Amino acid sequence: MKMEKTQRKEFLENISVLQWIWSFLLLGPICIGLMVYLLLTCLWPLPVLYLIWQLMDWHTPERGGRRSSFVRNWKVWNHVRDYFPMKLVKTAELNPNENYILGCHPHGVLSIGAFASFSTEACGFMDLFPGVRSCLCILGGLFKIPLYREYAMATGCCPVSKPSLKHLLSNSGQGNAVVIVIGGAAESLLSLPGVNTVVMKQRKGFVRVALEFGANLVPVYSYGENNIFRQVIFSEGSVGWRFQQLFKKIMSFSPCLFVGERWFWMPYHRPVTTVVGSPIPVPKRPFPTQEEVDHYHGLYMESLVKLFNEHKASCGLSDSHELQIV
Question: What residues form the membrane-spanning segments (predicted)?
Answer without folding.
Answer: 20-53
